[in-house]
Each structure stands twice: as structure tokens, then as C-alpha cells.
Amino acid sequence: MKNMLRSIIAGAKADYAEIRVEDSRLTQISYKGKTLENISESVDSGGCIRALVKGGWGFVSFNRLDELERKMKQAVEQAILISHHVEHATKLAPAETVQDEVRVSPGRDPREVSLKEKKEILEAYNDIVLSYNPRINTSAINYFDKFSRITLVNSEGTCIEQEKLDLGGNVVAVANEGGETQMGRFSFGSSDDFGVLLGKEDEVKKACQTAVDMLDTEGVRGGEYTVIVNPVLAGVFVHEAFGHLSEGDNVYEDKNLQNLMRLGETYGSKILNIYDTGLDPGCRGYLKYDDEGVPTEKTYLIKGGKLVGRLHSRETAGVMGEKPTGNARAISYRFAPICRMRNTCIEGGDASFEEMLKDIKLGVYAKDSYGGQTSGEMFTFSAGEAYMIRDGKLAELVKNVTLSGNVFQTLRNIDMIGSDFAVKDSGGGCGKGGQMPLPVSHGSPHIRISKAIIGGRK
């Protein structure tokens, strides 16, 4: 097939052209309460062509290899039409030519686990949830695994065959009493090991107990606090609130963001380092090459408190006169690659959790995440679990805790960073440009934020 793709590329009347072909196999299982809502295995095959002519892009997807010549002509024709209307012609930053084959080497390979066994594992977790406590009235369990083989050939001589494995899911316990609903959750994810799903009975029971305990707690009083954030919530924060602002296309398409995200600006103390990497095996954000065939790397975004980098495709790097970072990603062959994160992290520091606690007279310890939203530089996130901090010690459990504010001011208010760095993968994914859920990861140690805004009761 590689020779055929090279032949089609060689005949393309374009300044640049690429063909990406993908074969994948997907398994999905889900429960809602006692009901097995979905159990399925499916296969998908297809590909896409991108052609660049005089600064204009053409993009065509296909499902049959015998259509390649016609599809290439269509992509070139589209690019020519677009080139007459582009205000600023696209310029691709240079990238090395790569010839490589990448194979996955799983710990326990989900392809070798029967559908029956996968169902039985999830069913056992579901039974734990539904029998744990009378106040737990339902559950929500989701699991997937996907194996893909992607071949990329471009007109510059790159030819990469890359295997990818992605799996993840969630076990959610839902407790209800007197019209109030609370949840506890156990999440998992990996790019190389089905074992992350095994032997998690204690984690499932902990999620159940959290849901039950939250029914009996008081809501936090809203206000400004010193807040300690655990690695899960800190990772979600750095991905959602800062990572998206660092994506090259978001920067060059937004004049206001260009003024905010100027390289060299100070956005934190010298202890703050933030990076995005594709080099962490096992994480869902791991990949050796992006979907333009650019090798991934560890890209520092903030170093010593200063903005030092951003995330680029070849196109955004070319527009901004910077170098590509291996962040061009597409969720499938149906889409062209755009700037996306991989594993976005706050780097570990040297503080212990006890050191963070000891001088807080009144504060909040916020753990995990039940989602949130961002709007430009503003954010709001809901903690999955939270405790008051009183006189340097953890105190009572509180509920309905939200953390909100301006991302840049919040980064400046990080005054301690823990030494307990961790990446916690889940079964969700990132959404952007109609492409979701893209497998990503995020990591952090515990961090302490002074003057953080916590929403709650008056």
C-alpha cells in the first residue's frame, strides 16, 4: 500500500500533498443502572487527502483505495479554488523527513481479552455500586478500547506507519435522597495496558462512599480562600484554562489573545513550570508522531514563571515564524489535523502536602473534577470532593465546591507546588473544532493557590 500511496502523491499537482489511511477496531460497553445499554465491536477503514496549492488547502476523505486518484484531483481542485480567496497564504514550517514504523507493546493487550470477560469485569463493578448502599439508586459505567493502524505519506518523502492503542472509562455511583443527588466516580485510561481496569474494587467502593457521604454534608460558604488543589483537578485546570490558550491556531486567530500570550510575559513565580508532551508512554496523550508526521516532544509553555512557548502544527508555526512542536492531531481520517494538546502538565516542585497545610488558618482542599467551563481567560470548575482546612489541618467534608477566576491571575497566585507529581488518565477526552473525544492526558502535583475564589452558599 505504501508504494501505491507514494505513486498517487508523486502525481499530485500541488505544492504539498499528504495521504493518511486509517484502519481501526473499537469495542464499547456501557451500563445505566441494571441495564446493559451497549455492548459492541466495530471496524472502520478510510483515509483522507490534504493538498496545498498557492496557499489554499483542499481536503477530501474516502473509504475506498481505488478512489485515490480521483480524490487527489478533487483535493487539488478545492485547494485551487480556495487559493483565490485566502487573505494570507498558508506557509508550512519545515519539518524533517521521516521513515518509520511504530508498533504498540501493551502490558495486557485488550485485543486478547474476550468481549465476554470485559463485560464480566464491568458487571462486577456495577454490582458493587448497586449493592453498596440503599441511597445509591443508580450507576453509569462506560468502557471503550480502540486499536488503530495509521499510514501517512506526504510529498516531502515522509512515510510513517503508526499503531495506536487507546482505552478508558468511568464507573459512576449516583446517590439520591430528598431530591438531592450526589456522585462519586472512579476513572481509568491508558495507551498500553488493559490492566488499569483490573483489581479496582476498592476504588469503586471509595467512589460509592463519596457519593453517600456528600448527601450528609453542608455546602461551602462562598468567598476568597487559600486553596490546595489535588493533582487531578490541577491537571484539568492547566489543560482547560491554560492549555487551550497555548494552541497556536487559537493565538494567531485572536488579536486579544496575541496581546495576552506574548512570549516573555511573566505569569507566575519562578517555581511555576508548565509543559505539554507526547513522550510519556502509557498516558492517553502519548504519541511518537503527530498526524502531520512531525516527531512529538516535550514543549515548555511556562518556565520559571515566564511564557516561553506554544503548541504548533506546521501551519501555525509557519504563520507565526516558530517551529512545529508535534501538536497537529485529528480524531480520525474524517478530519484534517488541527492544533491539539497531548499530555499537559504542571511540573513537580519540592513542597510536601503537610507544608502546604500548616500555615492555612481557613482554606479549602479541592479534589478531582466534575467538569467546568472556560471563556477566554475566565474559568469555572466543579470539584468532585472537597474539605475545609482549619488551623493547618483537614476538617469537614463540604459539597458543591466550584473554583473560578482569571487563569492568568490564578497562575500568579500559585505560591507552593508539591513534589507528588502524578498523571491521572480518565475515559473522557478533549473537544475542539467538532473533533471529540480526542485522547489526551494531564498531570500535576498538589498546588496551593492564594486568594482563590470558591463559589458556594452565602
Give an account of the 3D structure:
- With 458 residues, this protein is an alpha+beta fold.
- The protein has 2 domains: 2-216, PmbA/TldD superfamily (PmbA/TldD fold, 2-Layer Sandwich), CATH 3.30.2290; 219-455, no CATH class.
- Helices cover 22% and strands 40% of the residues.
- The protein is built from 10 helices and 27 strands.
- Strands 8, 9, 16, 17, 18, 19, 20, 21, 22 and 27 form a 10-stranded mixed sheet that branches.
- Helix 3 packs parallel to helix 4.
- The model has no long low-confidence stretch (mean pLDDT 95).
Which properties best describe this structure?
seven-stranded mixed beta sheet, alpha+beta, 458 residues, 10 helices
Short summary of the structure?
The protein is of the alpha+beta class and 458 residues long. The chain folds into two domains: 2-216, PmbA/TldD superfamily (PmbA/TldD fold); 219-455, no CATH class.
Largest sheet: 10 strands, mixed
Q: What percent of residues adopt helix (DSSP H or I)?
A: 10-25%
Distance between the termini: 65 Å
User: What's the tally of helices?
Assistant: 10
- Find the structural class using helix and strand composition: alpha+beta
* Amount of beta strand: 35-45%
Molecular shape: globular
This entry's quaternary arrangement is single chain
Task: Give the low-pLDDT segments.
Answer: none
- Rounded mean pLDDT score: 95
Based on DSSP secondary structure assignment, what is the total number of beta strands? 27
Radius of gyration, CA atoms, in whole angstroms? 24 Å
Number of domains: 2
